[in-house]
Amino acid sequence: MFEFLKKDILILSRNRTELAILITMPFILIAILGFALRGIWSTESEAIDMTVGIVSDDHEQEGLTAFYQEVDKLELPQEEKQSLKAVASKTAPFTLLRDMLGTDEVSDMVTTVEMTESEAKQALEDEEIAAIVTLPANFTYKSLLKMYIDQGKGSAIQLTVEEKGSIEASIIENLINSFTENLNFESAISNVTKGQYQDSAQPMEQLGGTTTVLANETTITAMQYYTIGMAVMFALYVASMIASEAYVEKKQHVFDRIILSGKSSFAYLTSKLISTTSIVMIQLFILFVLSSIIFQTFNQTSLVFWLGMLLISFLLATCIGAFGSLLTAITLRINSYHINNVFSGGITSIFAFLGGSFFPITQLPSMIQVIGEWTPNGAALAAYVEWMQGSAFTDIISTLIKLIGIAVIVFMISMVVFPKRRSLS
Amino acid sequence: MLETELLQKKFKDQLAVDGINFYMEKGESIGLLGPNGAGKSTTISMISSLIKPTTGDIRLNGKSVVKNPQLIREVLGVVPQEIALYEELSAYENLKFFGRIYKLRGKELEKKIHSVLNLVGLQERQKDLVKNYSGGMQRRINIAVALLHEPEILIMDEPTVGIDPQSRSYILDMVRQLNEERGMTVLYTSHYMEEVEKLCDRIYIMDHGKIIASGTKEELKSVLSNEETILVDMNPISKELMQTLEEDDEIIQVNEIDKGMKLIVPKGSNKLTSIFHQTEAFGVQVTNVNVQVPTLEDVFLHLTGRTLRD
Question: Where are the domains of chain B?
Fold first, then answer.
């Protein structure tokens, strides 16, 4: 079988048009889509890394003491007063804000530095920080007074940004707004319950939006997604390319020579499977390596990670190899290369769309998602993405089995379709 | 060595080969002649086991090839009419690929590649891509691939179509060498009568799927042993004149050729005077006259009513 593979690789290496389709075009599309759609991939948390200056004119302990004094003046049972003081001590706004900004999820994106007002202004001007969060004088006292006794106007956190509307400004603004709303919500509950305030040890967990973004999974970048998406799409072209070669072999009677050498039709079909599989493996290797070198797409150095990628690539390649055999069988059966044009011109694009090469299939109706997951490129893309997000091998095994299943079924069909030796000429 | 028995092939309703009997002895060189559509290529495809006969059998040393195609494949080299090569590969790469699928390996393969390249005279150009070769060179490599595994029987289907006289002469000499010096059994089909006359010990003539004549060159020519051929060059070529001559009972056949007409007449019939009278009557000027003994071409014409290139 090696002689067939060597011959196919030699012929392919001398065909500039085919090489352009298999390597150059996907690489150009990876670059275009990876860069152009980078902005709409909100899950790219690693792209957000900002420093925020915290300027505090507030003295928390003094504020708390002043608040306790106000509580003592209230006409409430002593027990309720103690309860209110205890809750207030646990929910001092500045501490809560620090806790929120210090959580793992937020600190992955936002680094806080406490500084004076002048230092902060200078740092913002020098673009060393993305925003200044200023806590005004008596922030703790006024906030607690408004929150728990409903006296005064409360106190507002001041946010200063260099560029309104930038991603960084929007994120910190969102964080502070969520924090404030959450505090207001809790204080409202407190007012309703009149001192029967529930001890909220983890109030920050309700800080909406960001929780989803900062899940435990490693997120993947647009460049990574489209490297995989385009690679699995353009890998499909190898199947029609190999089948077209089979048509030329038949037309030029080279196929007869192969049969006369004593090779069985099964051996011939298997050679097409092996050639397609190997060429897809080479194609994927080149695309992944080029993308890694030029766009730093895959920075993983773990052997396990690359072994997983190798396994998924091999199963995808085998699956496409089976499609190469099927197209070869149909081509020889109907004695026409048109099926290959239909496959490369239409079916590949449909598979690419259904399989998620252009955008994630989670945005499509569930019925289409199910179909997409049964395309070789769609199944492989799902496995790659899960694996790159750090999923365990057991999480992708069902997808891998699906790829094996598709490969076996398609190859068996190709054996049935392949014309018997005596009806070839 | 190889024989066919009532070999027949039908494609749907069309009978391509109609019950032919045919044999080849070891070391013989056999010519298969016939116009386009006579059934030669179908016969060759059946003999080489590429298509299955509808009825009949092919036997190699008494054993059925139809039942066991591998028998003939092991001893057969086929030179198809088409250039059955990978154009994007060099001659050497083609030979290496086909050698490997014939299970040749290592030094043995290199030795045989070297040997066939020498035989076809393309040692110097072996690294060039086939697509960059002239038609004659492509034909020579086409033959070299068929010889790589040293077959006992070589089937050549019109191996000199569309090439220059020099390459054609080279190929004919090579085939003769393979047959005479290496004892290779050759089945040769061609449109060129002179090639078959030059190379073949025995000849089969096919038309409409049947073998209509067979034998040595002499045996075939004896079909017309009592006739002679008159070639008349004339100006202008007059179809009316030819029709009139055809009505003459003593003239066996009249056919138009390049510059005039060819007539087959009984030997010693002295028809020249009559022919000159007729040409004069039709106002046709005779520019040349040649009386000769019948050739194989004449035999073919006599048997089929058409020339080989029709």
Answer: 2-221, 226-293
